[in-house]
Structure formats: C-alpha cells, structure tokens
Amino acid sequence: MALELKQIEKVVGRDVHIHPTDLVLEPGSFNILLGTTLAGKTTLMQLMAGLDRPTGGSVHFNGADVTGKRVQDRNVSMVYQQFINYPNFSVFENIASPLRVAKLPETEIKRRVGEIAELLKLSAMLDRKPSELSGGQQQRTAMARALVKDSDLVLLDEPLANLDFKLREELREELPKLFGDRDCVVVYATTEPTEALLLGGYTATMHEGRVTQFGPTGAIYRNPKDVISARVFSEPPINTAWVVKEGDRVALGNVAAWPAPDVLAGKPDGRYQIGLRPHHVLPLRADAADVPVAGEVLVTELSGSESVVHFKVGNETWVSLAHGIHAFDVGETAELFADMRHAFYFAPDGGLLAA
Amino acid sequence: MPQTKSWIVPTLYIFFLMLPIYWLVNMSFKTTNEILGGFSLYPKEFTLENYITIFTDPTWYTGYLNSLAYVGINTVLSVAVALPAAYAFSRYRFIGDKHLFFWLLTNRMAPPAVFALPFLQLYSAVGLFDTHIAVALAHTLFNIPLAVWILEGFMSGVPKELDETAYVDGHPFWSFFIKIFIPTIAAGIGVAAFFCFMFSWVELLLAKTLTSVDAKPIAATMTRTASTSGYELGLLAAAGTLTIIPGAFVIYFVRNYIAKGFALGRV
To answer: Is residue A148 within 8 Å of residue A97, measured between CB atoms?
Structure first.
C-alpha cells in the first residue's frame, strides 16, 4: 500500500502552501512530518487524504492515480490535534461510525469496536457521550475511530499536542504498538524533534511548504542535508554561525579559531556555515580539543537535571545544553566549550559538506 | 450601597416590567362594565366569560389557528432554507461572500410597509391572496436573513475538522449534514426558529394586508373591538393574554440557547 506524491503542489491565491514535492511512503511504514507551525504539514496531509485538491501534480496509491478521488472513496483515517468526535453520538457509535457507513453486520461491528476499545482502554466508557470524557479519553476515542477500519492510510495531525505531558507520554508509547502489525501507511505530524526521535520510523523535515529532507529518522538526525533541515530537526535549536576558512584554520569571527576538519580539506578558503547541536556546547571543558567560545549570557534556564544557557556568539545566539546545574548571571561574559568535532559544515548555499 | 438594600432595584425593575402584563391579565377577568366603570386593582366580579367566548366563537379562535398555521409554515420554511445557506457562508469562500452576507441582513432594514402593496398586487395576481402560504412567504423575506445570520454564527463555532472527519469515515455530505451536523448545532436551530416564530407572530401589517377572511390572523381580529354592544375591552384583554402565551412558552424552551447565542455575538 505505497503512497506516492508526484510533483504535488498547492497554491491558494498568491500564496504557495506546498511547493512541488515528491514523496514515496512505503507500505507498513511510520512516517513523521516534522516542522514548525505553518510549515505545511496539515496541508500536505489534506492533499494525501483527498480532503483538498492539489493545484498541480498527482497522488498515487499502489500505482493507481487517486488525485481526483473523493475522500469517502479512499479508505483513509485521520486524527486531529483538536479532539474531534461526533457530540451527539455515544462513544460506541463514534467508534462504529466508519463501520456503519460500510454497512458491516451488527455482530461484526460489536466485535471490532469491542476489540479496539479494549486496546485503547475505552471499554468502560462506551455508553457515554464524548463531552463526558476527559481530554485523553476523547482523543483515544478519535484514534479508535481511525483504527477500527482497516485504512490504507492513517493520518495523525499532531494528535498529542493538546494533551498534558503525562498522557502524551503514555499515548506515545502505545502508538507504534497500535500500528505494529498493520500494513497501512501511517503519517504523523509533529512540531517536536524529540517526539520524532522517540517514534522512530521515517521522517520528512518540512520548512515553508517544502519537504527539505526525507529518510529514516535516525539517519536524518545524524546527517542533515542542509542548514534548514538541521534547524528543523533540533531542539533546542541548533547553533549556527558563519565561519571563515583560511589555510588549515577555521575562524569564527574573533571569538574562536580551531584546526580545519577533514571535510574542509581541499575546499577553497572562504566563508562556510557551521551547525553544532546544543549538547556539544558545555560549560565545562570535557576534552583538550574543545574550543572555548566566550559570549554574553542572555538567559539561563534550569530544569531539575539540565541547564540551558543562551548566550551571544558574534551576531548569533547560541544555546548550551548540559547535565547538572550550571548557573550564570544574565549579562555576565561566560566561556563555554564547543566540541567542534561534532559540528556540521555547510557550503555557503546551505548544503552539507560530506567528508 | 449596603448589601441588604440591593434587592430594591431589581424589584422595582420587575415591578414596572410586569405592571402592564398584570393589568392585561387583570382586565381579561373583568366584565366590560367593571373596566369602564372605575379603577380596581383586581377583578371584583371575577369572570371567565371572555375566555369562554374566545374558545367557542369561531371568529375568535380561527384567528389563533390561522396565526399558528402561517407562523408554523414560516418558521419551518425559513429554517429549512437558511440551513444550507448558512452552511455555505460558514464553510466556503466565494467571490463577494462577505458582501452577500451583509446584503442579506440589509433586507431587514426596510419597513414591512414598503412591501405591503407589491405583495398584495403580486399575491392577488397569482391567486395566493388570503392563504396561509401567502403570509408565510411574505415573512420569509425578513426571517431567512435573520436565520442565516444566527445559524452562521453557530456553524462557524463548529470546527471544520468535524466535517472532514465525517468524510474520512465515509459519510456522504447529506448523511453528515443531517445525522451529525444538524444535531451538533441544534441549539442554534432552536434560537433561529424562536426568532422566526416571534417575528412572524407579532408582525401585523403584512399579515393583515394579505388576508381577508380565510387566513385572518388573531391580531387582525383583535383590531375589531367595537361590536353592537359597544367596546368589548374584557374580550380584547383576554385575547391579548392568549397571544402572549405562545411566545412565553417558546422562550422558556430556548432561554439557555439564547444566552449562548448572545455569547457568540449573533443574536
């Protein structure tokens, strides 16, 4: 059940919502659309579902062109960020709704709703109305409705965003299990890089209506294709800066300088971009090769076990993420240590320089 | 002001509000002689004669039946037509949608008297004069825009993801609209129906102009107070009291929804 988008495009008036995009999602795969709000995740999902018509390009399912096909005839399921249930139906009828439309026999409906309700811990609430449930239960009802029919395509649009974090963790753990033995294509939209890493599967990073990179989640995280993909897939945001290569040295303004890495060997002197994840910038020197970077501290956020320090490096704001409590005063000039061996080096046009 | 005196203002308010209604009810239980005879705070010779006349004399009670008939037709017609229109305004963007929406509302700005003559001429020409349908149709001119306006507010309060979820589940549009969407906005439909009912119930000019005998509304009957026995004020008061009852009855059922409508800024 492969889903294939060919040069799909969505333009509304003069606004381009989705730039021409190619994407192939394999059967039985869990795919994550990762991007900030307005990156085009929801629009792309609506195009996949057939709720919206693309202005250009086509959607293929198992090789068949389904671009103009109504959503009713497509066998898809969708769960939204808001808890969407039919307020006048009981939880049982909410879950049974797609089966009723498909005119399944009553006993079969009872059996399948019972099974899915058991799986999502809704068995005790089947007679209630959705408004009598808690937020987590409402969202589980919506998910049960999406899972009760054997959809070819399941779209989950930030389904956990409106839940408190305990429930979110609980449901996130259950999610991959729910799809474990199905051969449908699952697409999951999220704004949180951490969530993408926890869920695994494949990730498409999205930025301003473009899919900037697509591949296995871990690989994408380790090898961002360009600066934009690296920015999308980093929380706290990845530290970037323009550096100048001169001979076998790389200099970040007059803040820091370090030996040029292998990836820059043989490249002409000039300006390059670097990206360094916050956990490679630490308040304490861990290794003799670490590069000291000094800057004015803007803010320090202390959680129970981690410190996040925002500080100025040249014109950029950098972030350090470290275990333990490291308090700095706002305005103080602090020296932090960057492990440049983990830095990504990007060409001036933003593309990653591979070794 | 001390806390203990805070009941005074609401009490005065309710007193002045209820005074005319009390007086109407009071009069309806008096004989015409007592009403004309002097001032009394309550009926000295309590009589049900006025009500008995209304419920037994066909010239009176058919007035009520006529009114209820055209008001009922009008309410059903207005809401039925306004539902799809309001859905379109709330869910789709099309050229001139905002102007059209506002223009609908401007229909209510013209006084009904403006339309009385053209309607009379038109309905006489097509043979609709003095029928319930004629009055019901005339009133839709004012009620449909109002119902569209109210329903659009309620519909826009329902996320469009509900529609999409239903389509994804496989519901065709009409199945979604009737089985899921209409029950979801039942409160809005109640409020819209209430306002259509009330407008049609109290409107006199068009109702009177477009009818003569067969569809004559109660309000028109009430304007003929003078009979051979002089002014029948008690009878008139009883008719007035009975006219208030349907409105009060309907208001009782939709009072919570109207508050919701006010909160949405549409009523």
So the answer is: no
Edge-to-edge, what's the strand order for the sheet holding A316-323? A281-282, A333-338, A291-302, A306-313, A316-323
Mark whether A94 and A161 lie in a shared domain.
Answer: yes
Q: How far is A118 from chain B (nearest CA, A)?
A: 21
Q: Which of A72, A38, A39, A53 is nearest to A8 (CA)?
A: A53
In angstroms, the CA A242 to CA A256 distance is: 12
Do A326 and A215 fall into the same domain?
A: no
- DSSP letter at A352 equals B
Chain A CB contacts of B167 below 8 Å:
51, 70-72
CB contact under 8 Å between B180 and A88, yes or no, is yes
Q: Which residues of B touch A101 (CB under 8 A)?
A: 169-171, 175
Q: Is the ipTM, as predicted for this complex, more than 0.90?
A: no
B41's enclosing H/E stretch is none
B168 touches chain A (CB under 8 A): yes
pLDDT tens-digit series, residues A104-149: 999 999 999 999 999 888 999 999 999 999 988 999 999 999 999 8
User: B243: domain range?
Assistant: 57-225+235-263
